Amino acid sequence: MDNWSVRFNNIGLKRGSRVVLNGVDIQLSNAELVLMTGQNGSGKSTLLKILAGLLKPEQAYISLSPHNGQQLEHNWSRMRRVLRQRVCYLHQQPYLFHGSVFDNVAYGLKRKGLSGEQIKQQVSRMLEEFSLQDLINRDCRELSGGEKQRVAIVRSWITQPDIILLDEPFSNMDKESRRKCYTLINHLCRDNIALVLTSHDPLSGELDFTQHIHLYQGKITHKTPNIKSK
Amino acid sequence: MDDIMSASLQALNLLFSGDTQVWRIISVSFSVSLKAILIATLPAIALAFVLAYYTFPGRRLVITLFNTALAIPAVVVGLTLYLLLSRSGPFGELHLLFTQDAMVIGQIILCFPLLVAMSHASLQSSDQRAWETAITLGASPFYAAITVLKEVRFGLMAAVIAAFGRIIAEVGSSMMVGGNILNHTRNIPTAIALETSKGSFVQGIALGMVLLTMALLLNFVLTGVQGKGEVIH
């Protein structure tokens, strides 16, 4: 498995006169599981969208190594395309496109230009791996909140990103759905993917986090690397 | 009452007897309006998308202008176009006046603002997460836009049907720039207006039946497609 790391330096964003993020530095590498905590409005979701290349910050400098065999260093605007290729972001309430679970999970693969047969095989295999095969032809509007979240995670994972960002994935989820999601997340971490989870509550026990970042009013106030050695 | 019934029966007879003149009028109507809607739809939806998803100086002014243009009467469009296309007008040399092409241009001008305004309203109420999800799953901005358009397809279809309904039934512009020439630029609304003014109602009723049937069919199609969509209860 390839090792890689990405460093986001000095991320800053203002909305009007309000400072949303101020001088945030984050480093991520493969197979990391990062917990990002902070109160509502502390800037967690905004930060994730910037990391995913979806929201333009006022300032941010990104260093990625290796990328096509070399170190890549640029500001956010020049790195946006690379971020979008390598980072996948999941909303707090994941958005599933109109159609079946198959259509949704296949979405990213279609963009990669795979043949219909290859897509069918990969989607079936992936859904089976996460015990979601019974849902394959189900209309996404009929899914429960927990099922939607798991389908969305699988849909992201199948595109093979380096980083998956999960925005409050366990909010409004019952105990059983949470347990299934923990299993899924632990599985992803074994696959060399870096995962960042946000939560306004500290999560305990179930997941082996390697970093804990706490945001308060747009600033990192607490950073604990290697909470548990993986 | 008996007169209306009798005229309606004669109108049905006229339609089913395959009267060449009536069917020529119907074909002109559909040919002109379909061309206009086909030409206008794609640029209008693209513009609506840009207005809904991008910010640029003057954006709000453009939206206001299109909303205002919804209220422009067809006859004003016809008059303006007439002045532009008449021999002494700036585009007189194109010899477009009293042709089907001029009617198409007039109908494009009429349906474009409606398409933009209704598509824009649909896109504005669409979920921002659809765009972000598409992008984060590796779609190019162009394909992400296509995905968003698919997500709001019912609203867009309603816009196209409403716009088609507006132009196929408009009289003012077609009358002024088409000239209501038999077998050439006479379409359903201009024929109805002419026949009614002559006191000959049979052809008018026959053509009115065609318009109503078309409206009914279009709405059946829309309802049929939407029927596969989400229901509230």
How does this model look, in words?
By secondary structure, chain A is of the alpha/beta class. Chain A has a domain at 5-96 and 163-225: Rossmann fold (3-Layer(aba) Sandwich), CATH 3.40.50. Chain A is built from six helices and ten strands, in the order E-E-E-H-E-E-H-E-H-H-H-E-H-E-E-E. Chain A has helices at 44-51, 76-86, 101-111, 116-129, 145-157, 175-189, and strands at residues 5-15, 18-29, 33-38, 59-67, 70-75, 87-90, 163-166, 194-199, 211-216, 219-225. Chain A has a six-stranded mixed β-sheet with strand order 6-7-8-3-9-10, with helices on both faces. A four-stranded antiparallel β-sheet of chain A has the order 2-1-4-5. In chain A, strand 7, helix 6 (175-189) and strand 8 form a beta-alpha-beta unit. In chain A, helix 3 crosses helix 4, helix 3 (101-111) packs parallel to helix 5 and helix 5 runs parallel beside helix 6 (175-189). The two termini of chain A are 15 Å apart. Chain B has 233 residues and is an all-alpha fold. Chain B has one domain (23-186): MetI-like fold. In chain B, 76% of the residues lie in helices and 0% in strands. Chain B is built from eleven helices and no strands. Chain B has helices spanning 2-16, 20-53, 59-69, 74-85, 100-124, 128-136, 141-151, 153-168, 172-178, 188-197, 201-226. The radius of gyration of chain B is 21 Å and the shape is globular. Chain B starts with a helix and ends in a 7-residue tail after the last helix. The chains are: A alpha/beta (230), B mainly alpha (233). At the A-B interface, strand 6 and helix 3 of A face helix 6 and helix 7 of B.
